[in-house]
TrEMBL record:
Native species: Kineobactrum salinum
UniProt superkingdom: Bacteria
Classification lineage: Bacteria, Pseudomonadati, Pseudomonadota, Gammaproteobacteria, Cellvibrionales
Pfam families according to UniProt: adh_short
Presence of the UniProt keyword Glycoprotein in the record: no
Keyword Heme listed: no
Keywords: Oxidoreductase
GO-annotated molecular function: oxidoreductase activity, acting on the CH-OH group of donors, NAD or NADP as acceptor
Family per record: Belongs to the short-chain dehydrogenases/reductases (SDR) family.
Record's protein name: SDR family oxidoreductase
InterPro entries registered for this protein in UniProt: KR_dom, NAD(P)-bd_dom_sf, SDR_fam
Domain Ketoreductase per the UniProt entry, residue ranges: 7-185
Alphabetized PANTHER family for the sequence: 3-OXOACYL-[ACYL-CARRIER-PROTEIN] REDUCTASE, SHORT-CHAIN DEHYDROGENASES/REDUCTASES FAMILY MEMBER
Length: 245
């Protein structure tokens, strides 16, 4: 495992799923870890890891700014910024889901990550690493994923632009694009998708078309720890050539 001794990692959405698995992984590699989450329960999780917990709802910009200020006060800055917090809203078709539902997803999955970059990039030390959590849905299309795919595609584009803008400081900016990951959100997402009309349409289409494209249209589910496995390598400064991924 790559050593991250003396490195500081700031992880949003770090109280569950990919965020928590990554926090454990980075702590094991020697990093000081700051976990940011909405729920007070995160304080106990952080204590068990020997990490720092900052409570904040990132859709509220003032709470984000306060969390970053605390991180700067305690650690002077950060070497790794894992921009991971977000929500999922799969299932409704374009006809079923109105603009107000898109707005909710936009606020959590694009506006908030943008705000983290806007306010947090200055705290990332030169030569550091920023990693955004996007999704395979941002690179492919499936029924019931219109809103989620659009927002995640925008986050992938934002990642690539940020990589260009921060390159002069030696900061690498990458996105991870996992498929379905076992987490608290997944059962709710599956229930919504199964109750929507697109599930019926997809099932009917799949029965007519026995091609690999249709047989794999629902991504393989993996464990959060599997997604977190490469993080020490991705975040290590010696990975200096990898950016805009």
């Amino acid at each position: 495992m790559f050593s991250l001794q003396a490195k500081v990692a700031f992880i949003t959405g770090g109280t569950a799923g990919i965020g928590l698995a990554t926090a454990k992984r980075l702590r094991a590699a020697g990093a000081e870890v700051i976990i940011v989450g909405r729920r007070e329960a995160g304080r106990t999780l952080a204590a068990e890891l020997g990490a720092t917990f900052l409570q904040a709802d990132l859709t509220r910009e003032e709470e984000l700014v306060a969390a970053l200020a605390q991180a700067r006060e305690r650690f002077g800055g950060m070497d790794i910024l894992f921009n991971n917090a977000g929500v999922e809203n799969t299932g409704p078709t374009i006809e079923e889901a109105g603009p107000e539902q898109l707005q909710t997803l936009f606020d959590a999955d694009l506006k908030a990550p943008y705000a983290v970059l806007h306010h947090g990039a200055a705290l990332v030390r030169d030569g550091g690493s920023i990693i955004n959590t996007a999704s395979v849905a941002g690179m492919m299309q499936m029924p019931g994923y219109a809103q989620y795919s659009a927002v995640k595609a925008a986050l992938i584009s934002l990642t690539r632009t940020a990589a260009l803008e921060l390159a002069p400081r030696g900061i690498r900016v990458n996105a991870i694009c996992p498929g379905s990951v076992w987490s608290e959100m997944l059962p709710r997402s599956i229930r919504r998708w199964k109750s929507s009309s697109c599930c019926v349409r997809s099932s009917a289409s799949a029965s007519r078309r026995k091609s690999p494209r249709w047989s794999t249209s629902w991504p393989r589910t993996t464990a959060a720890i599997s997604v977190a496995q490469p993080f020490p390598l991705t975040a290590a400064s010696r990975r200096g050539w990898a950016t805009r991924c």
